[in-house]
Structure formats: structure tokens, C-alpha cells
């Protein structure tokens, strides 16, 4: 082997080692970056010597897709569960202290006390006060639910704006990948950026991808709607200024196709689906249950007459004196139900009408003798709160029960849904973490491995340097031998 060949080999070895060292150093520097994929400098032998020909990026498409799907499910479930926690506190309070069920239970106790001593008007006033707490619970619960829907609507609008921004950034990253692929340059950084953006996009809506020529990527939603193809497709949503009971929320459109979701109130894929589920599923069902409780109270406390139709009694509504139709939901009734002024002493009413009847006229008087110890009507009201009646099944509770049990079942329904959402959130979080860990193990950086490789490269560098020094010494000796 000639000295010039030996020198060329040593130089190419130094160059390859330098390139490999640079790649290893970059790997170590980005070891803590979850969106970084390990790089490998692939070296091939040539004649003479060796040189680095390309940098390869570690990738596992199957694990990446699984992690993408898991992240989407976790994001949606997390949004759903956290929203339920907020809604539970806003409507029912801590330990259900401000729930209609608790207020109705207090009303029943007040009725029982009044029934034992009907002549005591202070007890009658206590019943009216307890009834006011029931009304307050229903009114404030309705307001809290509609405020929550309005707030969630704003979150949807923000999320849609963020998603459109991510899609625009994805377009830039995708262009960088395509351009680099066509020119033959290293596109590892652009691929990392594109994958990181894809994960963020997947948090908002579940996605599927496929790659075309020049590494061009196309994104579709889980149900096949195109989200990105060369350019981002438009994601649109019109927020509402406010909500009332029974008002439907606006849809989210992706490329003019409405975003779809499951009918199950306990699961959601993607943050947008989770927010829609809260606004149009859980919250509206809770509102319907409050409305049914309010309708049940108006019915249970209605005044009766042998010659006249039943008329609204202690609890009244906008359609009074008529009673709401049996088994039929009246949207917003919980927000408008109120105490009949005829019974309310603070409004000039008389609490004894609850004992005697007659708020709607003489035909409705039950205590015709005016007896101070008359308690039949009071006992009857208490019994009616436990007497089974027809409720609208669209409110999510199909069990036939009395008003008091229905109110308790409403809490049970929500707690059941929330518990299932929590269980689903834990499971999906664990799956997201496991798939992320598996992906990191396969494509991420192992610092110990990289440092071991760095030592090997150092030895290679030292050997190449010694070889160059040896060749240099030989050349110096040769030049000295030939002399001037």
C-alpha cells in the first residue's frame, strides 16, 4: 500500500468518525426530548478508506400509530372526566349538599314536622322556606349547567382555532420533508417536527395517516374525513353567545363534514369530541333531569278538586294554573319553577293554605271545617313525593319512582357516568403511557448506549490519528532520505 493511499484511508476514517461523533453528540443532547428520534450515521467502505454516506432516523410506524391513537383517546377522556368534575361541583356542590335531592329530603322532613302539629304556623313557614331551597337548587342548578355549556362552547372555539393553527404548522413541516427528500438532504429534524405536530393534532381529533411519494403525508380523521392533503382542510365552528335549556349546540365541521362522536356519555376520542359530549350529552341530560324533578314537584303539590282540574299549588310555573302533561319533558322548567306567592308570607301569602288548600279558590279547599289540627293534605303531599309517577325516559332515567327517589337517582346516574369516565380515563392514560414508553424504547435515545458508542468512536479517532502521524513520519523520513 502506498503512503498516499494510507493517508487517504486515515483522512476518510477521521471524517467518518467526526460525522458519527456529531450524530452521537446530538443524540445525547436530545435524549430528554420525547419528540426526538435517534439518528444513526450509516458508514460504508469504499476503495480506499471509509466514509459516512447517510444519516438514518429510527422509526416504528406501527408503534407510532398506536401511540397516536392512545393519545387521542386519553385527551378526549381527560377532557370529559375533568368537565364532569367541574359540573358536579357546580350543580350538586360538595357531597351533594346543594343538590335538589338534599333539598327535597329537607322539605319532606319539614312537611312531616308540620303534619304532626298543623296548628303551628311557624312550622308552616319552615315548610315554605324548605320549598324555597328546593326552588333555589333547581334554579341555580339550571343556571350552572347553562353557564357550563357556554363555557364549554368557548373552549371548543379555542380548540378549533388551535387545531387550525397546528394544521398550518404541519403544512410547513410537510413541505420541508418533501423538499429535503427530493434534494437528498437529511430530513430527520423535519420528520421529528412533523411527528410532534401530528401528536398534537391527534389530541384534538383521532387521525389516520398514509405517506405518498417524496414522504408527503395525508391526514384523515378516524371516520375518513380528509384533514390534510397538500394543504390543510378547514375546521370551522360558530360559538354561541349563551345557552338556555333545550338549545342545541352548533356542530364542528371538518372540510364541511360534521365531526361525529359516540352516543356513550362515558367515552370520547379526542378533545373536541370530549367537549361536545360534555356540552350536548352530559350537561343536557342533567338539565333534563332537573326539569323532570321540577315537573314532578309541580304535579306532587298540585291542588285537587272534585269539580275542577288539578291546579298548581305550592310550586308553580309559567303554564300555571295548569299542570304539566304527565311523562312529558318541559325544557327549562327547573330554571323557571318558583314558589306560589299565595303560600309565601314574604310575598303576602298564607302558609296555612298548604294545610287547608284553596290557593286556587274555594273549590280547592280541603279543610272545609277549618280545623287547626287538620293534617290530611300535608300527609298527602309527603306521600306524593314518594308515589311513583311517569317521567320522560329521554332524561336518561328509566326507573319508575317518586320525585324524591328520582332526584336521588339523578345523582346516582351522574355518579355512575362519572365513575365510568374516570375508569376509562385511567385505562386510556395507562395505554398512552405504555405505547409512548414502547415507542421511546424503540426509537428514542439510550444515553448509556450512546456514551458507549462515543468511547468506541474515540478509540477509532485515536487509531486514525496515530495512523496519520505514522504516515506523516514516514513521509518526513522519505523526504529527508532523498535530500535536497
Overview of the molecule:
Helix 2 runs antiparallel to helix 4 and helix 4 runs antiparallel to helix 5. 58% of the residues lie in helices and 8% in strands. It is α+β, with helices and mostly antiparallel strands and 484 residues long. The protein has a 4-stranded antiparallel sheet. The chain has a 3-stranded antiparallel sheet with strand order 7-8-9. A two-stranded antiparallel ribbon has the order 1-2. It has 2 domains: 93 residues; 368 residues, no CATH class. A hairpin with a 1-residue loop joins strand 5 and strand 6. The mean pLDDT is 89.
Topology of this structure?
Layout: H1 3-29, E1 39-45, E2 50-57, H2 61-92, H3 100-116, H4 121-183, H5 188-204, E3 207-211, E4 217-221, E5 226-229, E6 231-232, E7 235-236, E8 253-254, E9 257-258, H6 271-300, E10 315-316, H7 333-336, E11 338-339, H8 353-356, H9 376-386, H10 403-443, H11 447-482
Antiparallel strand pairs: 1-2, 3-4, 4-5, 5-6, 7-8, 8-9, 10-11
Amino acid at each position: 500500500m502506498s503512503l498516499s493511499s494510507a493517508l487517504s484511508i486515515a483522512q476518510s476514517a477521521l471524517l467518518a468518525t467526526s460525522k458519527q461523533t456529531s450524530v452521537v453528540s446530538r443524540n445525547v443532547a436530545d435524549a430528554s426530548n420525547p419528540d426526538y428520534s435517534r439518528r444513526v450515521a450509516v458508514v460504508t467502505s469504499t476503495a480506499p478508506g471509509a466514509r459516512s454516506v447517510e444519516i438514518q432516523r429510527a422509526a416504528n410506524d406501527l408503534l407510532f400509530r398506536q401511540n397516536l391513537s392512545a393519545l387521542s383517546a386519553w385527551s378526549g377522556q381527560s377532557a370529559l372526566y375533568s368537565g364532569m368534575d367541574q359540573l358536579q361541583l357546580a350543580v350538586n356542590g360538595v357531597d351533594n349538599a346543594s343538590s335538589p335531592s338534599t333539598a327535597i329530603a329537607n322539605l319532606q322532613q319539614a312537611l312531616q314536622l308540620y303534619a304532626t302539629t298543623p296548628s303551628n304556623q311557624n312550622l308552616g313557614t319552615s315548610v315554605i322556606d324548605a320549598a324555597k331551597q328546593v326552588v333555589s337548587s333547581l334554579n341555580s342548578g339550571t343556571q350552572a349547567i347553562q353557564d357550563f355549556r357556554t363555557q364549554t362552547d368557548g373552549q371548543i372555539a379555542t380548540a378549533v382555532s388551535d387545531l387550525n393553527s397546528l394544521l398550518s404548522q404541519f403544512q410547513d413541516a410537510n413541505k420541508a420533508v418533501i423538499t429535503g427528500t427530493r434534494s437528498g438532504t437529511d430530513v430527520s429534524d423535519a420528520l421529528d417536527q412533523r411527528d410532534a405536530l401530528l401528536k398534537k393534532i391527534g389530541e384534538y381529533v383521532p387521525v389516520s395517516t398514509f405517506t405518498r411519494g417524496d414522504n408527503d403525508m395525508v391526514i384523515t380523521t378516524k371516520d375518513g374525513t380528509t384533514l390534510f392533503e397538500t394543504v390543510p382542510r378547514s375546521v370551522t365552528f360558530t360559538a354561541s353567545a349563551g345557552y338556555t335549556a333545550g338549545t342545541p349546540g352548533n356542530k364542528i365541521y371538518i372540510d364541511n363534514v360534521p365531526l361525529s362522536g359516540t352516543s356513550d356519555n362515558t367515552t370520547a376520542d379526542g378533545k373536541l369530541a370530549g367537549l361536545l359530549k360534555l356540552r350536548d350529552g352530559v350537561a343536557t341530560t342533567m338539565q333534563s333531569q332537573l326539569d323532570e324533578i321540577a315537573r314532578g314537584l309541580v304535579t306532587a303539590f298540585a291542588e285537587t278538586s272534585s269539580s275542577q282540574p288539578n291546579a298548581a299549588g305550592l310550586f308553580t310555573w309559567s303554564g300555571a294554573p295548569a299542570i304539566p302533561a304527565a311523562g312529558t319533558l318541559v325544557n327549562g322548567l327547573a330554571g323557571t319553577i318558583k314558589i306560589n306567592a299565595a303560600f309565601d308570607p314574604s310575598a303576602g301569602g298564607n302558609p296555612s293554605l298548604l294545610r287547608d288548600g284553596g290557593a286556587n279558590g274555594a273549590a280547592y279547599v280541603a279543610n272545609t271545617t277549618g280545623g287547626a289540627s287538620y293534617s290530611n293534605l300535608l300527609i298527602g303531599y309527603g306521600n306524593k313525593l314518594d308515589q311513583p309517577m311517569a317521567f320522560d325516559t329521554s332524561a336518561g332515567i328509566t326507573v319508575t319512582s317518586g320525585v324524591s327517589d328520582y332526584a336521588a337517582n339523578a345523582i346516582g346516574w351522574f355518579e355512575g357516568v362519572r365513575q365510568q369516565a374516570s375508569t376509562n380515563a385511567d385505562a386510556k392514560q395507562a395505554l398512552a403511557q405504555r405505547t409512548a414508553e414502547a415507542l421511546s424504547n424503540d426509537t428514542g435515545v439510550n444515553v448509556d448506549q450512546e456514551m458507549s458508542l462515543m468511547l468506541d468512536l474515540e478509540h477509532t479517532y485515536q487509531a486514525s490519528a496515530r495512523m496519520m502521524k505514522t504516515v506523516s513520519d514516514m513521509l518526513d523520513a522519505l523526504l529527508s532520505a532523498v535530500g535536497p
